[in-house]
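Subject: sequence -> structure tokens, single chain

Hey, anyone have a minute? Need the predicted structure for the following. Not urgent.
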Amino acid sequence: MRYIALIAGLALIVFAAGCTAPSAPQTAMPTPAATVTAVQATAPAVSIAVGSARLASVGGTETVPIVLASAPDGISGYNITVALGDPSIAEITAVAFPDWAVMKSSSALPAGRVAIQAVDISQQVPAGATNVTLANLTVKGLTAGTTTITVTPDRVLGVQNRGGDLYAVRVTPGAITVGS
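Reply:
Had a minute. Here:
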């Protein structure tokens, strides 16, 4: 069921991204407030490691991987946010997805924070897979210094196994150092 919700959510994001201007409401009826309920993780705990990089100078770029250490029950998809601790030091300029990731999307770039999501419709990530790349980020140095890179799984969609159950995710942050 959550797999369907992930696909529907991705389709809605893709559709919304293609809209050029919001339409005016047809009636004066108030819009009901949306309620989001966090879903408890029901699959085993897994770890995501964010790579680290050193950029020799301001303006330089480097690729930083986001890797799921293991997928005991495979992957149906994920929805995560990647954020730089200090976006004045570096910015995320691109997101590259692995071949297994379809119906993939990322929020606008360049940015200090990016929401990324993808679905493994053809089940290319098998149960028991290890070192599964979720995405590779291109990061550009803006000023000398060091900043962290963290990943936060979405509270409702997160990282899901093939059955649509949420993995409990532990994250090991990375870091970007610009200059000496």
